[in-house]
Amino acid sequence: MESLKSKHYLILSFVVSLIFVSCSSTDKEADFKVEQGYALGTTYTIKYEATDEEQNLKPLIEAVFDTVNMSMSTYLPTSDISAINRGDSTIAVDKYFKEVYVTAKEVYKKTGGFFDPTIGALANAWGFGPEMAIDHMKKSEVDSLLEFTGFDKVYMSDDQRIIKKNKNIYLDFNALAKGYTIDLIGRMFDRNKVKNYLIEVGGEILTRGNSKTTNKVKNWVVAIDSPTQDTEQRVLIAKVQLKDKAMATSGNYRKFRVDEETGEHYVHIINPLTGYPQKSNVLSVSVVAQTCMVADAYATALMVMPLDKAKELLKSTSEIDAYIISADKDGDLVEYKTKGFQELLLD
């Protein structure tokens, strides 16, 4: 592992850091359209090379967001997952829900439960969900909520109904549904013959083709923030070349809740095995995979896992590469990269 003391690139805008590093100021971009907006509780920027001047895919992009929300948004009372969480076992879920469910089961098993979509009750209690938080959580309350945790307590029937061993189990696919939405938008682009595009939703990315210019053809280049809590100025710690790949980053350093009475910070990533917000020297995990859903899920799992277990998982899981940033005992940033991720980095 290497010290990161000298790797600092000054930056003022997070979205710019993620996307618009693919072309220098002297390059004239090809005819790319840019769609921006707000969805899934975050911002998005989508850049694609239209097949002709008349092609407008914004309505189809918005339709994908609507489809995923109606199926899997815990913030939408009329969604399928909200009905399931209220105890409705009569709903036959759609093909989108099923695809996310199947991937979630696979990652749950491969990570030994460190990735678990049944942490919804815990997420709500700690103040990171749509339901009312519990102030000053006691150990007895955490232990009680753990009874409703465990994806092995949830099944899908042959007719695609969700069966829960305990009616109080609260499903939450937010840790991979955003990545899945990005994949669906990518599939829509593919059906519409779009060959070159970059889709970014809340910092998670899918690329296809390249960021063409009139002078040269270049891979898409995106950047990773340094894991600091300085929100006024952001620092880039790495630049990554992506071609036909997805990348998701998970971290404890941007999103947290503060107890108004005690002042204690609770980070948004919860360990499903302990029931508590994760306390770890791992600050940030970036995962590259073929699909954004897989990258999204593993980024969450690796963020929760002890560093030694995370390294073991990476050595045995060929479908992903990762870049982990942690802090040593002196507070200095330290990095761990798989060989495949190292090959994607720019100097």
Automatic annotation (TrEMBL):
Its cofactor is Mg(2+); Mn(2+). It comes from Galbibacter orientalis DSM 19592. InterPro entries: ApbE, ApbE-like_sf. It is found in: Cell inner membrane. Its EC number is 2.7.1.180. Flavin transferase that catalyzes the transfer of the FMN moiety of FAD and its covalent binding to the hydroxyl group of a threonine residue in a target flavoprotein. This is FAD:protein FMN transferase. Magnesium. Can also use manganese. GO terms for cellular component: plasma membrane. The keyword Transferase applies. The keyword Cell membrane applies.
